[in-house]
Specification:
Strands 3-4-2-5-1-6-7-8 form an eight-stranded mixed β-sheet, sandwiched between helices. It has a single domain, classed as P-loop containing nucleotide triphosphate hydrolases (Rossmann fold). The chain has about 260 residues and is of the alpha/beta class. The protein starts with a strand and ends with a helix. The longest helix is centred in the last third of the chain and has 17 residues, at about 225-240. Strand 3 and strand 4 form a beta hairpin. It has helices at about 15-30, 45-50, 60-65, 70-75, 100-110, 125-135, 145-160, 175-180, 185-190, 205-210, 225-240, 255-260, and strands spanning about 5-10, 35-40, 75, 85, 115-120, 135-140, 165-170, 195-200.
Length: about 260
Amino acid sequence: MARIYLVTSYKGGVGKSTVSANIANKLAKLGKKVLLCDLDFDLGTLDLLLGCEDRMLFDICDAVYGRADAESCTVKLGADKNLAFLGAPYRCNDETDPEYFASRIKELAKDYDYAILDTPGGNTVTLQAARLCSDEAIVVATQNPASIRGAEKTADSLAEAGISSRLVINCFDAQSAENSSRAGILSMIDSTKTPLLGVIPYDRTMMFAQEKGVLSDGDTFISSQAFENVVSRMEAALTHKRPVPVLYKVRGIRRKKVLTK
């Protein structure tokens, strides 16, 4: 069975889809079979980030409710086709039962190593379904105070549901943390009360690349190494190996400076 990760935060606009897509891509490049699901039924955008919007004939609801077979519904991506994508519907007219939806996601994911579930902001029905089938949650936050509060509430809610969470700090601006104009890494861990999984630096190149359906990969993107670190730390937790530091080889961040804030 796949290890299922829920990527979430009650606060919208923190980059959950960006984090989901890039984690899934890095896992696939390691040779892992990955199922990436877009559960944002209001405004799913993962197909745009992946550059496959013109290849989607069916969506995740078609797969869940049996209107088409799972193979036809998934879009295979990457040189080795290790990344399978189930997109969100343009409009969902089905009455979503969280328990049934969760059971179907587990069934669809059974032949994969990992499943990454990208969810919308707020406590939606699809988030409830994702909670029921996930092994662990990745809570995404930026240095924005509202985002930090949202991450704290999200982690608390997940803990009540019996799901452990780890924090990914997205779009991290090291300079603002150094001069104390925005929250630093340690203060965000304290505020959210959530163990740290990774820190993704602000990457202007990636922001423009996403508009063309290109993910963070290679030396052009300062965020690429950070996403590799996240995936390495996810793998280490499962194999009980020593994890790499969150800022291992990440360019442009003075580790000692940001970790004292």
